[in-house]
Amino acid sequence: MSTQRFSLSLAAVSASVLLAACGSMAPMTPMASSMFMQDSLPEAVKVPVGHKVAMETVGVGEITYECRDKANAPGMTEWVFVGPNAMLNDRSGKQVGKYYGPPASWEAMDGSKVTATQVAVAPAGTGNLPFQLVKANPAMGSGAMTGVSYIQRVALKGGVAPASVCSPASKGTREIVKYQADYIFWKAA
């Protein structure tokens, strides 16, 4: 067991040294990017040819839902997505940015940020938010988000609307749901 702890500590130190040398939102290495092969994703959320992985983050946070009237269905109610609030961490767990909204915004610790327009979604398994592909708007500020063209949401855990009842009597009630997702940032090759 002590050998395993040493190996994990050595890996954490190696990751810290790499991040210190390359910056907190370090570019993907070829080995690390292989886990995000486009072939393993549904066609709808694949990034167009001519782009490469620029950075990856793990979003850990929560999504707020509100019980509201159902659109075009008088007297009916449903849980409606209000917005996310998540920390964007590197693989060692260090916070390198944040994700919040509305509007959906990805902001690096250097202050650069992007908003985006949804291109496509695809199912990611029961109880999980869907895979998502968004096209980034030009970055605000200069830094890690400069040049980001697409963002993929993959490796999803949780985040779907609450299972609790949303009825006309509970309109306006808000509930917070925990989630985790990898956000993969792409730039033109």
SSE order, as H and E? Answer: HHEEEEEEEE
Helix content: 10-25%
Q: Please give the count of helices.
A: 2
Sheet with the most strands: spatial strand order = 1-2-3-4-5-6-7-8
Description:
This protein is mainly β. The protein has one domain. It contains two helices and eight strands. Strand 4 and strand 5 form a beta hairpin. 26% of the residues are buried. The N terminus is likely disordered.
Secondary-structure topology with pairs:
Layout: H1 2-22, H2 30-33, E1 51-69, E2 77-89, E3 95-100, E4 105-108, E5 113-122, E6 131-136, E7 148-158, E8 174-188
Antiparallel strand pairs: 1-2, 1-8, 2-3, 3-4, 4-5, 5-6, 6-7, 7-8
Summarize the structure.
With 189 residues, the chain is mostly beta strands. The protein is 13% helix and 44% strand. Residues 1-35 have low confidence and may be disordered.
Task: Note the main attributes of this structure.
189 residues; mainly beta; eight-stranded antiparallel beta barrel
